[in-house]
Amino acid sequence: MLEPRDGIPPVITDEDSLAEVVAAFAAGSGPVAVDAERASGYRYGQRAYLVQLRREGAGSALIDPIACPGLAGLGQELSGVEWVLHAATQDLPCLREIGMVPTRLFDTELAGRLAGFPRVGLGAMVENVLGFVLEKGHSAVDWSTRPLPEPWLRYAALDVELLVDLRDALEKELDRQGKLEWALQEFDAIASAPPAEPRKDPWRRTSGMHKVRRRRQMAVVRELWQTRDRIAQRRDVSPGKVLGDAAIIEAALAIPPNVHALASLNGFGSRTGRRQLEQWQAAIDRARALSESALPQPGQPVTGPPPPRAWADKDPSAAARLSAARAAVSELAEELNMPQENLISPDTVRRVCWEPPQPIDPESVAAALAGYGARPWQIEQVTPVLTLALTTKA
């Protein structure tokens, strides 16, 4: 499929046109296909730069959320309508920012996983399920570009063109496999989940952090990361375009005493101006001047069980339980033809194996799984095999 059936719709960039779209989609029927395009790797944050919609009776719409930043009215008109998204958890945060929050949804990627499809990207799913090949050449472009080129708009419109058709076909397949109720529980869990909490100490996720051993070096990573983040936010560019993770790690390991030494490190070479070098060196100097008590601790506070590789030494019985539980979950997932992580969260399995409920019986295991957020269908499927695994001895 190279062209949308009704052609490429005009991009909505003013309030009058937006009001017409809102009215049309409110009057439409059936589910609404929704997608959003971000500028990951180009701009700071994960805001939406294009929103695509399609609904029976309304056709397709392309909305510029930069020119029309308040889409809460559209979201309200579609409240109660089922939204069809592909990989919903990727788009929901940026849609929430502009006032679009579904109360019901159908995730075609997750549906594909539960139905046992080996490839669940949108292009692969449309091809395997509906027999159409979509042009997918513009997924990683800079969607903050204005005006958006016509080939990009064609790609964006095609992303929602067949989404409801795909949803309908997957619903039938899930029903045939006896998994439709499972999928509906998963979709409800996504729609009702609260916004994710900001990550604590995000600088600790700097690529290459495993090389950094000393607390003073960690302080350098923190200072450089925070300085980079402020600059990236002010300039509205991806942090990686300001300074690469590899350069941050290089500077942390070397802790250069001055600008001259800093300039000799990879990532701080001839292209880096004197003023930029001085701001990076100032961040390093702040880390060097910190007292011992102000240095970051080597690792975040651990919640839950320790890493599984340490279980054999810390608690051999727990290690035996985990080994048995993993094997049982793997076998069951294979029988049900779905990925293990969709059958039950690996973290939930670890927690239950580290501190088994007492007594170890189906009722207690089911209660423990529910306490960790497992859905009823997961509890029903997994409780018998986990109960057996938890009785395994070292």
Q: In sequence order, what are the helices and strands, one letter per element?
A: EHEEEHEHEHHHHHHHHHHHHHHHH
Sheet/helix structural class? alpha/beta
How would you describe the shape? Answer: flat
Helical stretch count? Answer: 19
Q: Supply Rg.
A: 25 Å
Largest sheet: 6 strands, mixed
**CATH homologous superfamily of the largest domain - what is it?**
Ribonuclease H-like superfamily/Ribonuclease H
Indicate the CATH class of the largest domain.
Alpha Beta
CATH topology of the largest domain: Nucleotidyltransferase, domain 5
**Total beta strand runs:** 6
Strand order of the largest sheet: 1-4-3-2-5-6
Strand content: 5-15%
Query: Could you estimate the helical fraction of the residues in percent?
Result: 40-55%
- The CATH architecture of the largest domain can be named as 2-Layer Sandwich
Point out poorly predicted stretches: none
Q: Can you give the mean pLDDT?
A: 95
Domain count:
3
C-alpha termini separation? 57 Å
GO molecular function, one term: nucleotide binding
Pfam families: DNA_pol_A_exo1, DNA_pol_A_exoN, HRDC
Keywords: Exonuclease, Hydrolase, Nuclease
Organism: Streptomyces nodosus
Which SSEs are present, and which pair or pack?
Blueprint: E1 11-12, H1 15-27, E2 29-38, E3 48-56, E4 59-63, H2 72-77, E5 82-85, H3 88-97, E6 104-107, H4 108-115, H5 122-130, H6 150-161, H7 163-177, H8 180-192, H9 215-235, H10 239-242, H11 245-254, H12 259-263, H13 274-289, H14 311-314, H15 316-336, H16 340-343, H17 346-354, H18 362-371, H19 376-389
Parallel strand pairs: 1-4, 2-5, 5-6
Antiparallel strand pairs: 2-3, 3-4
